[in-house]
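Repro:
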Amino acid sequence: MTPQAVVDHDDTTIIGQLATNIQSGGHVVAAQSDARPVDLNSCDREAIHIPGSIQPHGLMLVAGCHDFRVHHVAGDVEERLGVIWKDQPLSALITTTLAGKIDALLSPGAVGGLIGQLQGRTNELLDVSAHRSGADLIVELETASSVVRPTSTALDGLAEAAAGFELSVNLIALCDRAAFEFRHLTGFDRVMIYRLLDDGAGRVVAESRREDLHSFLNQHFPASDIPRQARALYIRNLIRVIPDVSYQPARLRPDWIEPAPLDMADSSLRSVSPVHLQYLVNMDVKASASVSIVKDGVLWGLIACHHLSPRSLSYEIRAACRSMAGSLSRQIKSKKRRRLIAKEFASVTLKMTSSRCFPGRPRSKRLSPIISTRYAE
């Protein structure tokens, strides 16, 4: 019997199932010292978009849309930016040029993203991204990559991966190639392609890993592994990274007293479920990332990445992951369409063969073995 998994609240929760099997011999226990059972229904209701804290490798500035003045922060803003932030205009913290680019986010239908780079107090180069959350603007700052790659090199890599996806003969070969390409791009020790099945359960359909790591290939996991609200966030926020699972959350300062909590659904730095973090610790995973595979607006699956030491992904690499996931999604759709066409062709050919070519023969002998096996996956 497959043990019921303890649910992770907002990340690649197949880890919860795997850690349950590894750490408790198939018995479900909470990731707490008292080892009490976890209420799966409670997990399904957790408001994962309003944690009130961030992962501390970055900084968050929260300003009002009406005046662009900073009223809350998270992370070590004073040390890394060297500024007094309370009630200051964004331009005083991130330069007038970058603050000016945020104006566009106030337009209807505007989508947030990278707005530029900023030099920190100790010459630390920071990537700066911004998005709107209700009546507030959220600005996030993360350490920029120290490796500068020419744009042409990045584009060539994405084009090569896309060509490999297109040449894959079927869905299994496509997922195998995707696991390889995402591991090559991210440098993680293990990359798994996790497919959601029609009943909501999931299965690891492909994997690329270090040779000394055991395999999770073909493991099945229940639908409860990824709660409804987490699936919605995976569609909305396509990539999720935890550079160091042992982090201590950096809470918003000062305490948030508004009636409605700050919605961090679109935040890259949004803090992670403690349950999920504990499972990663149980498995000796020190860093993780997940990339959504969305097909026709529906979550088809996830690209789940694990590393055995802390590892970050720069904004540049995350953008490449999103692009590559888009190419993968298009090829999944293409492979499915080809498979349906092949089945229709086989069906028509069978009918033609049955009625015209071999009258009187048993039906089982009329279908060419080529037709019945050529497009099998």
